[in-house]
Design goal:
With 241 residues, the chain is mainly alpha-helical. The protein contains eleven helices and no strands.
Length: 241
């Protein structure tokens, strides 16, 4: 089925369930949990399956919190995602994915460390452009594109972070998939499997929505930074292995 064993699909489904649950709470996370599992168990489905799942999770999430979207910030970040996506496609076609993963992981860990030790970074247009471009590169090449934007938004209200990141992920994943299509790297099996996994996505989102009210303010920021750091560690281990 889809070129992989049924047991592998079950493992991927569990990872999607956990990742979706985390994303419903802090605004990102499905790439952290699901992408490494997919890369280890069904590498031929990456990065397409991770991108399709990210697209579906963000689209469903946006339906519940769209009124909290920061459209001004997205007006800066989303256009920068386009050249970032093109750069990500080029890197996938011409560079070693392991080296790219290591570079992205180190970058995220450094950013998280700086966030813990410094004051809030003003959300300016140039910083949003840089975050949008970087997310386009890393999201297309590794399917983990959330940390650059999440780190910039870390001191905003939780509902604003989740809603704005959801829009960014929807548009960003669509651009990455379009870029892979133009590059001749897109296949049908990942899409079919992503559709099969949508009930799992809905269950994970519903569970996360019920529990996310327990995290607010500093606790929410700590949780989000932890997810970003863990995503970098997972990506680093996966790349080195």
């Amino acid at each position: 089925m889809f070129g992989v064993e049924l047991s592998v699909i079950v493992v991927i489904a569990v990872s999607v369930l956990v990742g979706t649950f985390v994303q419903a709470i802090v605004g990102l996370g499905v790439g952290l949990v699901a992408a490494p599992v997919i890369a280890l168990t069904a590498p031929d489905l990456m990065p397409q399956l991770g991108l399709w799942i990210a697209f579906g999770v963000a689209l469903v999430s946006l339906a519940g919190e769209r009124r909290h979207v920061d459209w001004r910030a997205l007006a800066w970040a989303l256009p920068a995602r386009i050249p970032g996506t093109a750069a990500g496609v080029w890197l996938v076609l011409h560079f070693d994915a392991r080296l790219l993963g290591i570079a992205v992981a180190v970058m995220v860990l450094v950013a998280v460390g700086m966030s813990l030790r410094t004051v809030a970074v003003p959300m300016t247009g140039p910083r949003l452009l840089a975050a949008g471009f970087t997310s386009g590169v890393t999201g297309t090449a590794t399917s983990i594109g959330g940390p650059p934007m999440a780190l910039l938004f870390q001191r905003r209200r939780p509902e604003e972070i989740r809603a704005t990141l959801a829009v960014f992920f929807v548009v960003g994943a669509a651009l990455s998939l379009a870029g892979l299509t133009v590059g001749g790297s897109l296949e049908t099996e990942p899409l079919a499997l992503a559709v099969l996994l949508m009930p799992v996505v809905l269950v994970g989102l519903a569970a996360g929505v019920r529990l996310r009210g327990r995290l607010a303010g500093a606790r929410f920021r700590t949780a989000m930074l932890s997810v970003c750091a863990l995503s970098a560690v997972v990506l680093l281990v996966r790349s080195l292995a």
